[in-house]
Amino acid sequence: MAGRLNKRELFRRTLAVTGGIKALEAIPVWSGLLVLNYHRIGTPTNSRLDEALWSATQDDFDQQVRLLKDGFEVIGLSELPEAIRDLQAAGRQLWKSSRFAMITFDDGYVDNYELAYPVLRTNDATGVFFVATGFIDEPRLAWWDEIAWMIRSSKRDTLRLAENWLDEPLKLDRSDRRQVINQLLRACYRLDGCRTKQFLDGIAEETGSGRAPKEAANEQWMTWDMIREMSAGGMDFGAHTVTHPILANLTAEEQGMEVCESRLRIEKQLDRPITSLSYPVGKRESFNDETRAALSKHGFDWAFSYYGGHSSGADIDRFDIPRVAIESDVSMADFRSCCALPHVFARH
């Protein structure tokens, strides 16, 4: 069994067994900025939605925030420029260790308010919440959740879509159907905005489930009242587009609309400048030079990706600040390893 482990996992387990993680936490061996990204807090008990979006239970999140507070200066968006200046000034002074962390959330799920916000306030930590404004204004299932809902609602045993969507039929067994959902999500990632609805309509027809009813989105998203309360309570907010498209799949004009309209909507609700955005999906191929041009044109200072990594400070790309995904299968040992040695463990 051990022979099948990759080198990073073997190293992590060795550190855990030997107590090496505690030593690294006591004597920090790196300087930089580690940005962690969450989606949902809680447990997806009997949910038909995409359970991969639940990042941690409330208790686990509390432990993670406490660990970050012990080993890092946890910062919000307003402190980011000063943190970067500090890291850049430190340069190669190996005796100086400056470690900053950011706790970020994407999308705008209601458990961010109900479960994450109380933990952050209790621990006196700032969270940064990137919200897709269209889901707040007109609550509905996000496309990834709707795909999961349709697949899990289907009573059929096979899914057949046109060849331009899938190469071959997919078997719908009686398990959680996670593999099929992942295949459909990967197919959806490749689509431009005008084809996404066709794709979802095709799944709805072939599964026999139909499109998810509006009620399926009940109590899924925060309200603007919740967001204003969190903002007044010290939390930071940023844009995550309007409809959560993969920006690189859109025209330059469409990208400009998505980033600008989301910024303006949040500014109107919070009466404060919004200058940061996180890319939907956030892979390297999820944004492009046209995205960067749109961000510059519409007044953004920072944009966050989602494919792992950390920043030393000297290498900061203001429109590609890397974030590490925190997911439900991340144990505390994994989390501590990521924090102690992000250049080894904070990678996808």
SSE succession: HHEEEHEHEHEHHEEHHHEHEHEEHH
Q: For the record, what CATH class of the largest domain applies?
A: Alpha Beta
Q: State the end-to-end CA separation.
A: 22 Å
* Beta-strand content estimate: 5-15%
**Mean of the pLDDT scores?**
89
Number of strands: 12
- Output the structural class: alpha/beta
What is the molecular shape? globular
CATH topology of the largest domain: TIM Barrel
Low-confidence stretches: 1-5
Radius of gyration: 21 Å
- Whole-number count of domains: 2
Main pleated-sheet profile = 6 strands, parallel
Instruction: Output the number of helix runs.
Output: 14
CATH homologous superfamily identity of the largest domain: Glycoside hydrolase/deacetylase
Percent range of helical residues: 40-55%
Per CATH, which architecture of the largest domain?
Answer: Alpha-Beta Barrel
Description:
- It contains 14 helices and 12 strands.
- The protein is of the alpha/beta class and 348 residues long.
- Mean pLDDT is 89; it is low at 1-5.
- Strands 1, 4, 5, 6, 9 and 12 form a 6-stranded parallel β-sheet that branches.
Provide keyphrases for this structure.
348 residues; TIM Barrel; two-stranded parallel sheet; 14 helices; globular
